[in-house]
DNA sequence: ACAACTATGTTTAGTTA
DNA sequence: ATAACTAAACATAGTTG
C-alpha cells in the first residue's frame, strides 16, 4: 500500500561488487576502512555472544596494522603459539566427547609415517650429544657467510656483512628454524604431549612476543591474494 | 501492490538479538559456527578487495581453535610480533607522507640498544667455544651461496636431542632469526636502499611463505569478555 | 552436529556534504 | 580523509528436516 507514488530514488543504493582487487585507490581505502571496522565489530560480537576468544590482525597495503583481541592480543597469541589449551568452560566441554579427536585410521597413518621418518633420520649421521649446550651457543652469537664457523672465536659482527650476505643468512636461518620447528612438533606428538590433530609446527618466536592488545599504525606491507579458510564444528 | 493477500509466514524471520552472552548452549554453538564462518568470509573478502593481509584466530569456549591467515598465519604473526614492516605497495604509499616513519631519535635509540645487546652477547661467546661440534646439529642442507653455512657441512640427527633440548634450540634459533631480520631491515635503511618511510622489497623470510593457511581444532579455553578495538586511517 | 529455508536485521557501495 | 545517507545486498535467528 501507499506505493502509488513512484518517488524518485535519491541514490541507487548499495551495488553488488565482484570480490576482486579494487583498482580505484580511493574506493579501496574507503572500503578498507568500512570493512575493517565491520570485521572488528563482528569479532567483538562473536566474543560476547559466544564467549569466544578472538584475535584479528589486519595490515593495510600502506603497511599499517590494526588489531583486535579478546581478552587480549597477547593472550590469544600466547595460546595459539604455545599450543597450550586455554581453560575450557565446563558447560561446553561437558558433552564434548572428543573435541579434537582424530580418526584412528588417520592417526595411525600419520603415526607410522612419523616413525618411518624418524628411522630415516636416525640412519643419517650420528654424534652430538652435548647438544644441550646449543642453546647458549645459538643465543650467544650471530654469525655470517664465512668459512669460519659462526660460533668460533668472536662472534661475527653483523656489521661486517653486506646486505646480501645478511639476506642470504636470513633466508637460510628461516629454513632451519622451520625444520627444527617441524621436528619439535613431531616430537611432541610422538611424545603424547600433543594431540595428533594439533596445529602445525609452531614458531617458538611467538611465545616471546608481548605486544599491546591493540594497536594501529606502523608501516610496510605487500599484498597478495587468495586466502583460504575453513572450520566447522565447535 | 499485491499485498491484498495476507499470506501466512513460514518463519518469523531473523529476529534482533541483544549482544550479550547467549545462555542457551545449543544456540550458542550454532551462532558460533555461523558467525565464525561469517568473519572468515569477511576477512577473506577484505584481503582480496583491499590487498590487505589479515589473520583471524578464534577459540571456541570448548577450546578449539580456528584460524584464517593471508598470506599465511605464520607470516602475519611474524610481521606482527617482530614489528618488521611488511613491504608497502607503491600505489598506497605514494601520497603517504610518513605512514610508518619512526622518529629519528627513537630509531637511534633502538639501534644503540641493539648494538649494546650485541656487545653483551660477544662477551658470552667465550664460554661456549667447545660447542664447535654443534656444527652438525642441524639436519638438512640449506642451499645458498658459494659459502657454506655452519649447518651445511654434515647433517645431524635431531633425534639425538630430547624434546626440551630441541625446544630450547628452537627458541634460540628464532631469537637469532629475529635479530638478523631486524639487522637486515636496518641495513637497508642505513644503506639508502630504503628510507625510513619507504620500505624495501619483502624481507627474504616472508617471501618464503605465501600460502593461505587454515586450521581447525585443538582443545581448551576459558571465556571472559570486554575486548576492545580501534583503528582509523589507512 | 549440519543443511535448508525464509523473513528480517545488518552491512555497505555509491553518493553527497 | 571522515561522516551521513539511502537502497540494495548480504548475513543470520529461528525454525524445520
From TrEMBL, chains A, B:
<protein>
    <recommendedName>
        <fullName>MADS-box domain-containing protein</fullName>
    </recommendedName>
</protein>
<dbReference type="GO" id="GO:0000981">
    <property type="term" value="F:DNA-binding transcription factor activity, RNA polymerase II-specific"/>
</dbReference>
<dbReference type="InterPro" id="IPR036879">
    <property type="entry name" value="TF_MADSbox_sf"/>
</dbReference>
<keyword id="KW-0805">Transcription regulation</keyword>
<keyword id="KW-0238">DNA-binding</keyword>
<feature type="domain" description="MADS-box">
    <location>
        <begin position="12"/>
        <end position="72"/>
    </location>
</feature>
<keyword id="KW-0804">Transcription</keyword>
<dbReference type="GO" id="GO:0046983">
    <property type="term" value="F:protein dimerization activity"/>
</dbReference>
<keyword id="KW-0175">Coiled coil</keyword>
<dbReference type="InterPro" id="IPR002100">
    <property type="entry name" value="TF_MADSbox"/>
</dbReference>
<dbReference type="GO" id="GO:0000978">
    <property type="term" value="F:RNA polymerase II cis-regulatory region sequence-specific DNA binding"/>
</dbReference>
<dbReference type="InterPro" id="IPR033896">
    <property type="entry name" value="MEF2-like_N"/>
</dbReference>
<feature type="coiled-coil region">
    <location>
        <begin position="104"/>
        <end position="135"/>
    </location>
</feature>
<dbReference type="Pfam" id="PF00319">
    <property type="entry name" value="SRF-TF"/>
</dbReference>
<dbReference type="GO" id="GO:0045944">
    <property type="term" value="P:positive regulation of transcription by RNA polymerase II"/>
</dbReference>
<keyword id="KW-0539">Nucleus</keyword>
<dbReference type="GO" id="GO:0005634">
    <property type="term" value="C:nucleus"/>
</dbReference>
